């Protein structure tokens, strides 16, 4: 995959998606499949999870940006993802500030200092 | 003989401990840097939202929403990913406009020579048969074609800002600038996250190695304490009292 660059996918609320699309990350591919999902009040958790998994399966996505409050809804799916590509980045949302103690990566790093590791 | 073996083991233990300490310090530095970058990322996102809200206030509630997204969306930024030997991934952003201009610089002959030459010959042939009045028009057309940029090298690549109108407020432009910075920073954060996880793995391996080399003294101490407590563990003794 040295020739063509990868994309940044976004799962977030309206303002987050609008902002990142303004920044130029958006793409509608040949099959009219977007690399972003605007989560609204009526968006189901199943839909979010399926979209997240579809982004994981796509080989043209390098980073997945996801609002932390949405990541909380599909925490099991995020924790199950152990590969380095695509990288999953949890970002804050307007109503929910970023909480480092909830972040999957930092929790994994913290796990380093659990009693299990010192046995 | 026995002292030699114990000395060797002691040296190995020291080396392992030193390596572990170095790795742990590196790990801490990386975590600190990650936190720093995270803070910057979060404040930039907040800045972006604030600008979007200001734009929404001046343009109207429905003017800055998902309904305004273009029907054709093309990425203007791409991520270059490089996987290192230890499984670490490096992410680097690259703007697509820059890529296109680099392509043009690499192959400038296509733009300068071929297009205008063909066009010029064709025009000369046509003007021979036409009236002398039209001759004055032909060179003008030739000149205009020569100065206009070739359309096939630069396909229509719309700026997302134009989804929201031609004359957008300054605040929306500021939001775009903020989010462009966020995108660059998010690639850096992703790289750091990957580095942190790789260092964590390394730490685990080093810790395992060190534990293998340490003599099993820990279990002896446990049995000793049990003997002192009269066959009871600490928890049991406290619960009884």
Automatic annotation (TrEMBL), chain A:
<comment type="function">
    <text>Subunit of the V1 complex of vacuolar(H+)-ATPase (V-ATPase), a multisubunit enzyme composed of a peripheral complex (V1) that hydrolyzes ATP and a membrane integral complex (V0) that translocates protons. V-ATPase is responsible for acidifying and maintaining the pH of intracellular compartments and in some cell types, is targeted to the plasma membrane, where it is responsible for acidifying the extracellular environment.</text>
</comment>
<dbReference type="GO" id="GO:1902017">
    <property type="term" value="P:regulation of cilium assembly"/>
</dbReference>
<dbReference type="GO" id="GO:0046961">
    <property type="term" value="F:proton-transporting ATPase activity, rotational mechanism"/>
</dbReference>
<keyword id="KW-0406">Ion transport</keyword>
<dbReference type="Pfam" id="PF01990">
    <property type="entry name" value="ATP-synt_F"/>
</dbReference>
<dbReference type="InterPro" id="IPR036906">
    <property type="entry name" value="ATPase_V1_fsu_sf"/>
</dbReference>
<protein>
    <recommendedName>
        <fullName>V-type proton ATPase subunit F</fullName>
    </recommendedName>
</protein>
<dbReference type="GO" id="GO:0033180">
    <property type="term" value="C:proton-transporting V-type ATPase, V1 domain"/>
</dbReference>
<dbReference type="GO" id="GO:0060041">
    <property type="term" value="P:retina development in camera-type eye"/>
</dbReference>
<keyword id="KW-0375">Hydrogen ion transport</keyword>
<keyword id="KW-0813">Transport</keyword>
<comment type="subunit">
    <text>V-ATPase is a heteromultimeric enzyme made up of two complexes: the ATP-hydrolytic V1 complex and the proton translocation V0 complex.</text>
</comment>
<comment type="similarity">
    <text>Belongs to the V-ATPase F subunit family.</text>
</comment>
<dbReference type="GO" id="GO:0016020">
    <property type="term" value="C:membrane"/>
</dbReference>
<dbReference type="GO" id="GO:1901207">
    <property type="term" value="P:regulation of heart looping"/>
</dbReference>
<dbReference type="GO" id="GO:0045176">
    <property type="term" value="P:apical protein localization"/>
</dbReference>
<dbReference type="InterPro" id="IPR005772">
    <property type="entry name" value="ATPase_V1-cplx_fsu_euk"/>
</dbReference>
<dbReference type="GO" id="GO:0070121">
    <property type="term" value="P:Kupffer's vesicle development"/>
</dbReference>
<dbReference type="InterPro" id="IPR008218">
    <property type="entry name" value="ATPase_V1-cplx_f_g_su"/>
</dbReference>
<dbReference type="GO" id="GO:0005886">
    <property type="term" value="C:plasma membrane"/>
</dbReference>
<dbReference type="GO" id="GO:0060036">
    <property type="term" value="P:notochord cell vacuolation"/>
</dbReference>
<dbReference type="GO" id="GO:0042127">
    <property type="term" value="P:regulation of cell population proliferation"/>
</dbReference>
Automatic annotation (TrEMBL), chain B:
<keyword id="KW-0458">Lysosome</keyword>
<keyword id="KW-0256">Endoplasmic reticulum</keyword>
<dbReference type="GO" id="GO:0070072">
    <property type="term" value="P:vacuolar proton-transporting V-type ATPase complex assembly"/>
</dbReference>
<protein>
    <recommendedName>
        <fullName>Vacuolar ATPase assembly protein VMA22</fullName>
    </recommendedName>
</protein>
<keyword id="KW-0968">Cytoplasmic vesicle</keyword>
<dbReference type="Pfam" id="PF21730">
    <property type="entry name" value="Vma22_CCDC115"/>
</dbReference>
<dbReference type="GO" id="GO:0005768">
    <property type="term" value="C:endosome"/>
</dbReference>
<dbReference type="GO" id="GO:0005764">
    <property type="term" value="C:lysosome"/>
</dbReference>
<dbReference type="GO" id="GO:0005793">
    <property type="term" value="C:endoplasmic reticulum-Golgi intermediate compartment"/>
</dbReference>
<dbReference type="InterPro" id="IPR040357">
    <property type="entry name" value="Vma22/CCDC115"/>
</dbReference>
<comment type="subunit">
    <text>Accessory component of the multisubunit proton-transporting vacuolar (V)-ATPase protein pump.</text>
</comment>
<feature type="region of interest" description="Disordered">
    <location>
        <begin position="207"/>
        <end position="241"/>
    </location>
</feature>
<keyword id="KW-0175">Coiled coil</keyword>
<keyword id="KW-0967">Endosome</keyword>
<feature type="compositionally biased region" description="Basic and acidic residues">
    <location>
        <begin position="207"/>
        <end position="224"/>
    </location>
</feature>
<feature type="region of interest" description="Disordered">
    <location>
        <begin position="99"/>
        <end position="157"/>
    </location>
</feature>
<feature type="compositionally biased region" description="Basic and acidic residues">
    <location>
        <begin position="99"/>
        <end position="134"/>
    </location>
</feature>
<dbReference type="GO" id="GO:0030137">
    <property type="term" value="C:COPI-coated vesicle"/>
</dbReference>
<dbReference type="GO" id="GO:0051082">
    <property type="term" value="F:unfolded protein binding"/>
</dbReference>
